[in-house]
Amino acid sequence: MTTSSANHWLKDVAAHAGMDLDLPRRPDIASVRNAWPGVARACRLPDDKFTQRVAGYFRMGVADVSTYDPQSVKLIPEAIARRYGLLALSSTDASIVVATSDPANRAAHRDIVAHSSRQPVFMMASPTVLGHALERAYAPARAPKNALQTLVAQVAESDFQVVTNQGKGLFTSFELEDPGVVKLGEIVLQQGLRYRATEIHVEPGATNGRVRYRIDGVLHHVVDLPPAAHNRLVARLKHLAFEQPGANPEDGFTVRISSDVYKQAHLLTTPTPDGELVWIRLVSPNVVPSLDDLGFDGPEDRKIRQVLAKKEGLVLVTGPARSGTTSFIYAALHSLESQAVISLEGRPELVVPGVTQIRYDPSTGLSFAETLQQLLDRAPDVIHAGEIRDLATARIVLRTAVTGRKILATVHTSDAVSGVRRLVDMGLASGRLAESLHAVISLRLVRKLCESCARAFDPERDAKSREAKLASVLGVPPVMRAVGCRACAGTGYLHQIPIPEILVVSPAMRMVLARSPNDIELLRAAQADGMRTFAEVGLERVANGLTTVEEIERVLGVVPTRDETADSVGPVLVVDDEEQDRLIVSSVLRQMGFQVREATDVATAKSMLESGDEAFSMVMMDLYMPGSDGTELLRSIRQSLSTQSLPVIVLTSSANPRDELELLEAGADDFLLKPVVAERLEARVRAVLRRSGVRIAAGG
């Protein structure tokens, strides 16, 4: 093959094959894509052989686009990738391997460098193969959301033209069965099931509501809801739960994808000034977890099994909401099913084979404690007493434990020691508690690294990451890093594992407890007796490559405040379209000793953050910028795995208090009015960094 500087290389290839190709000197990717098959036919070569011939022409390899690194894909914005027909396959700190059909495109080379801050290494791929790969790489994260947004817009704009005398805010059956409303309800529910959500939140707002899913303990934004769409979606969901034939609000309603993939949905509503808040809990009613399923390991696993094997005494299970206490109770009851077990519950979520589960009914006129007392006449071996809410229930629980029965109960406290303190604060004597209490099992849940995409931690490549800084403070060597793939919906994590703290009341601890110790004394005694704290167990999970320090910090907040200089903590990204405002803010930050990077628009800021080239310590952003609301950047920061904990201060000239509330709700750490006053800006920067665990010394 020969080439001429006057023509595009594909036109020269066609001419060499005897084909007169009508192609501009600088064709776009669509022109190359359309011309490629004809040139291949003229060369009498199939597509793959022609691709190999062109690759040899440019002295480069043929790309395998069946596999690619999702983090590298994020380095090139989708718009750029589609404009030039590019797909990033892998990357290092200095280079990025890119599949292309037109390696001679200088504009593509320039934009890759600008957005990824890396030099491209091109590999050849045919436009057809590359087009399919681009759809796989970019469409999964975008298409469902876009389809849902389109449907939301249709529902919001529909004009049903229905006259009803039922009153404002009520919906006729015609409206509730409208295909758009029905489809929206189905997608919100079924998509939640596909994404493994445990909760669906349909939240109202002053201007727009939103739908969020709780996945592996973390809320993820799904779609915004205009008021009309919110009202119709809420009405449809309430109709499914309460009004359709055979509906039983107590049992919930079934959400089904297929005959064997379904969950039971329990719906609660709460009125707010902006509309109704709907909360849906998704549970698998016939799937009872075992202790093995929950993922305990090490000495804590052995202690739990020893505690449950003992025939008598109180086992207190503690933890905040969504810490895994309910699943643990059901798994524990399941392990004891060979005995006579009775469980008194507010509303049984799961049916445990071999366990007598009784729903507490306040309409009988009996209190929870009185109902529990009646159950003792059945002489069970094991009793689950639900949550201890009052002194009467606590006293019955202790009396039952003293009589030689095993009893499981829960309280909502933050750790094992505070579980003991809660019972004492209710009015129980420490001496009586020491006689009956066998163990306190306190739980937290952290997300487990996705096995499909987690990669080994590279000390050189990842030295500037927040994970590396947190690990150095805590003295734990990170083993793996979260990446993100289709299997984990881009989060880098899949499923949850428990972090237990187990206080076993040994004879030595019984003596300590009988002396009415304060919390510090009890904690020291428990640690001396072999109890490991949440932090110790959690960091062991990090060392074993099961999770990350960032995840442990998110759940436990175990990272202490560390002293750094403004220069060492990492650069601050200032995002503002006004040059004068950027100059003022950047000057103040540089005087404090910070390195500063600047962006004039949201797209550039997103690219700088997504590239991962620099470990930014903070973002200072304007609220109003041409072409894009600053809240778009804020939401992008909070939804991204790599920046979700990055401190953000919003600067704006708006004095509307509603703006402040909405920005803080969207994830801003602070809010500062323009014009900027240097002393106030400096104080806010120090305060926000201090809340994130970094203390900057005065003067830098």
Q: Tell me the CATH superfamily of the largest domain.
A: P-loop containing nucleotide triphosphate hydrolases
Strands in their spatial order, largest beta sheet: 12-11-13-14-10-15-18
Counting helices, strands and paired strands, the structural category is alpha/beta
Regions with little confidence, pLDDT below 50 for 5+ residues: 1-5, 160-170
Q: What Rg, in angstroms, do the CA atoms define? A: 30 Å
Proper CATH architecture of the largest domain? 3-Layer(aba) Sandwich
> What's the end-to-end separation, in Å?
62 Å
Helical percent range? Answer: 40-55%
Kindly report the CATH topology of the largest domain: Rossmann fold
A few lines on this structure:
The protein is of the alpha/beta class. The chain is 42% helix and 22% strand. It has 27 helices and 27 strands.
Structure description:
The chain is an alpha/beta fold and 700 residues long. It folds into four domains: 9-132, Type II secretion system, protein E, N-terminal domain (GMP Synthetase, Chain A, domain 3); 167-283, Beta-Lactamase (2-Layer Sandwich); 291-446 and 497-532, Rossmann fold; 563-696, Response regulator (Rossmann fold, 3-Layer(aba) Sandwich). 42% of the residues lie in helices and 22% in strands. A seven-stranded mixed β-sheet has the order 12-11-13-14-10-15-18, sandwiched between helices. A six-stranded antiparallel β-sheet has the order 6-5-4-9-8-7. Helix 14 runs parallel beside helix 15, helix 15 (391-402) crosses helix 17 and helix 24 packs parallel to helix 25. It is globular, with a radius of gyration of 30 Å.
